[in-house]
Write a structure and sequence with these properties.
With 201 residues, the chain is α/β, with parallel strands linked by helices. Helix content is 26%, strand content 29%. The chain has a seven-stranded mixed beta sheet with strand order 5-4-3-6-7-9-8, with helices on both faces. A two-stranded antiparallel sheet has the order 1-2. The longest helix is centred in the middle third of the chain and has 13 residues. The N terminus is likely disordered.
C-alpha cells in the first residue's frame, strides 16, 4: 500500500493504464486513465450525474471554462466537445491526472483549446464563463471551503458554476455554506444520492 490519494501531487502508485468508456449527450467517449487518479476505473457516479443533469454549454459558447479537479479529464473533454470554439482550463494538483487530461483532450480533437495546469499556474486575472467541478470532498471540509473560496470568485459576472456533491458527504450543508458566503445557489437536480448545484453571483 502507498500513501497516494487522487490529490497527491506526484503519485507513486504504478500507473496501470486503462480506458474508461462512457456516453454523454449522444456522444461516446473512450478516455485513457491510470491508477493514482480520481475514479481511475470508471466514470465517477457523481460526475456522471453532473454531466447528465447540468446544462452543458451552448455549441457556440467560447468560454473560457474551468474544470476544478479535472482527474483524467472527462468533464474537460465533454465541455470541449459540446462547445467546439471554447477554451477549457483543466486544473488538478495531480501531475498524472494532468498528463492524462492533456492526452485525452488530444484524442477528442481539442488539444489546441484545452489548457491543462496546476492550480498556481492559472493566470491570476482570468475569469471564467462557467466553472465545473465534482469537488474533492475527501480533502476535508476546511480544505474544500478554501478551494471554493479560491476559485468561485473567478466566475465572470454573468457566469455559472456547476457542482455535484453526494448528499451523504455533505451536499446539503455545502449548499447552505455557499449561501452563507453570498452565492445564489439552486439545487438544480438530485439523482442517485447526488446534488447538482447551480451557483451564480
Amino acid at each position: 500500500m502507498t500513501g497516494d490519494h487522487y490529490f497527491t501531487a506526484e503519485p507513486a502508485t504504478p500507473a496501470q493504464p486503462r480506458e474508461v468508456e462512457f456516453s454523454v449527450a449522444g456522444r461516446d467517449y473512450t478516455l485513457a486513465s491510470a491508477a493514482g487518479v480520481f475514479s481511475a476505473a470508471r466514470l465517477d457516479p457523481g460526475t456522471a450525474v453532473l454531466l447528465r443533469k447540468a446544462d452543458l454549454p451552448a455549441r457556440d459558447a467560447t468560454g473560457p471554462f474551468l474544470d476544478i479537479g479535472c482527474g483524467f479529464g472527462p468533464i474537460t473533454c465533454v465541455l470541449a466537445s459540446s462547445a467546439p470554439a471554447a477554451t477549457v482550463w483543466a486544473v488538478d494538483v495531480n501531475q498524472r491526472a494532468r498528463d492524462l487530461t492533456a492526452a485525452n483532450a488530444a484524442s477528442v480533437g481539442a488539444a489546441d483549446r484545452v489548457q491543462v495546469a496546476a492550480p498556481d499556474d492559472v493566470p491570476a486575472d482570468l475569469t471564467f464563463a462557467e466553472i465545473w467541478s465534482n469537488p474533492p470532498i475527501h480533502i476535508g471540509k476546511a480544505e474544500l471551503h478554501e478551494l471554493l473560496r479560491r476559485w468561485l470568485p473567478r466566475l465572470a459576472p454573468a457566469g455559472v458554476a456547476w457542482l455535484v456533491v453526494a448528499r451523504h458527504l455533505g451536499g446539503d450543508s455545502l449548499h447552505r455554506w455557499l449561501v452563507e458566503q453570498g452565492w445564489h445557489v439552486e439545487r438544480h437536480a438530485s439523482q442517485k444520492g447526488y446534488r447538482v448545484l447551480r451557483v451564480t453571483r
